[in-house]
Amino acid sequence: xxxxxxxxxxxxxxxxxxxxxxxxxxxxxxxxxxxxxxxxxxxxxxxxxxxxxxxxxxxxxxxxxxxxxxxxxxxxxxxxxxxxxxxxxxxxxxxxxxxxxxxxxxxxxxxxxxxxxxxxxxxxxxxxxxxxxxxxxxxxxxxxxxxxxxxxxxxxxxxxxxxxxxxxxxxxxxxxxxxxxxxxxxxxxxxxxxxxx
Amino acid sequence: xxxxxxxxxxxxxxxxxxxxxxxxxxxxxxxxxxxxxxxxxxxxxxxxxxxxxxxxxxxxxxxxxxxxxxxxxxxxxxxxxxxxxxxxxxxxxxxxxxxxx
Lengths: 197, 101
What we know:
The complex is a heterodimer.
Chain A: H1 3-24, H2 28-48, H3 52-76, H4 87-110, H5 125-135, H6 137-158, H7 163-168, H8 182-195
Helix pairs in contact in A: 1-2, 2-3
Chain B: H1 5-25, H2 29-53, H3 58-88
Helix pairs in contact in B: 1-2, 2-3
């Protein structure tokens, strides 16, 4: 067993432990913090498997940007929903995961070629970038369009609707935006009432 | 000489199964999104291992696109959750019944 193999198994244990702790937490904040550890382990694994640029991207995008975004959104919510920890709730999900996992393990073990030992190689960032923009420049452009679409959708969804305040106190803002129709008002009040049940 | 390819795939499969359980079992929409992230992470690990196995950079290019799609997905999903919370005051999908007659 080489040093690389030892590092791989150590990283695997770290990633699996952190992910397992993350998915069983009841507080989303704790889950996100454990998940950051898992993503940092993934970045180290990418570095070991010869993808230094992807390792940097995982640290920047996953562990940095996305997880901080999730943390900020968690702070917007006052309380978490009541989580059930009964066997009847977690049982079917775990059964599904175990069935999937056993099938995957059987497929991997049955294939002789899965025993092929990986040879170390490194994709240098310069070569990788050149390759990406040489062969997959169209996909990069399509991804940028995807980001634009997501941005527009998020701006639309995140826009505060005036009906939210008008519903609480319709008289206070006579010159503002048009008050909600009776239909909208009933929907909003119903939703709020049901939510606080 | 690192490890056999199958071991990396087994690691990816384990992480994917954990993400699947997280996705199905929780009653919190944020935990559901986190489960999707975990599954995408597992797919990225499998892609990088395959890229090293065949000594081709296509796998790593795909991981880059997985990263981009996952970033767009989580931000849009969180925006949807915030919007739903504003409308209904809850992030438990069991409470979403405003479409019920």
